[in-house]
Design a protein that fits this description.
Helix 8 packs parallel to helix 10, helix 9 packs antiparallel against helix 10 and helix 12 packs across helix 13. The longest helix has 24 residues. This protein has 393 residues and is α/β, with parallel strands linked by helices. The protein is 49% helix and 14% strand. The protein is built from 15 helices and 12 strands.
Length: 393
Amino acid sequence: GADRFEVVVFADGCADGTVMMLRNWGGPLRLTICEQTGEGAAAARNRGAQAATGDILIFLDDDMEPVPGLVEGYVRALAGGAHDVALGPSVPVLAPPIDLFRITLRLWWADLLDTLAAPGHRFSYRDMLSGNLALGARLFRQVGGFDAALRCREDHELGVRLIRAGAAFTWVPGASALHHDATDLDRSLERARQEGRGDMQIARRYPGLLPTLPIGACGADGLPAAGLGRLAVTHPSLGRAFARQMRGMLGPLEQIRARRRWRSLYGAVRSFWYWRGVAEEAGSPVELQRLTRRHASLRVGAGRAVELDLQLGLEATTALLDRIRPAGARIRHGWSPVGVIKSDPSREQLRGEHLRPLLATQFAAPLLTAMALARATPDEAHQSHLMSLGAGR
């Protein structure tokens, strides 16, 4: 019921009549209207959260249209205490004309939503989508909210701090919103530039996450490997000229339906603007080289791991994961190894719900082998284990 939740609208430098419309609106909701003068989405979300009085915060961007069931879905997901952060689908509603760019954007969103909705998905800080997000108000205050100094990737940066705080994430299919995305091709290129700046800021603050960022793919010289990305760092004027020419070719390529070539060219132009943002934030190629070379030896894999024996039973094993929340795990069935879940500082700590899908897919074959060995006599199983170790050498 509308009496059980409140709506806080934070207008960030709106000049389109939004505030006047809301003040004259006679709807049934408990509505609070706040304003600021173009200070950015992170600052607006933080101040909106300060104005809210509820225990659960639901963040929706201004281009999101919640469908019936969104509030109920989030409340159910977070009220039990098993999860701390919840995300729901942002279903793209693309305005015409439906050109190749919008088709590409829709496919990107579809792939992302499929990944997030996969059973047992282990959430990364890069999965944080603040356009449709819910979490406890106490947790939000505890980690410090969004960083208002960031104008892009502020949701990813918050995701880092939530993961470090041990937050448990979940996907809520019923908490869906229609995403009226007004992004066009040129706005997407500017977005890529801002993403480059944001990723560079994250790399500086959290150098251990460098391998999880595109910046971590720099070559041995600490620069992008080739193409327009390298020009964006070393010769920006020349790269900008090439990028401008390639941007001009996208229209003709679409007209002749050269879709594969269009996607390749669009990817190259977008790469230029991403790396241009990286270079602008770095300040100089030398600074970028210093960062990437200094942390070139960092690898995903550090963190506390635990040994799991599935012979204890699946329920006991998943309960153990839920109790200790390790960064990684080595899984065996008696004497027989089943698999390794690598420690990954970019992802949430392991929980029991992450294990079952892995056992049914990635680890299915070694698990079946281990279970077959376990049915043999103890001497036979031990001898088979020693033989497998010898073959491994």
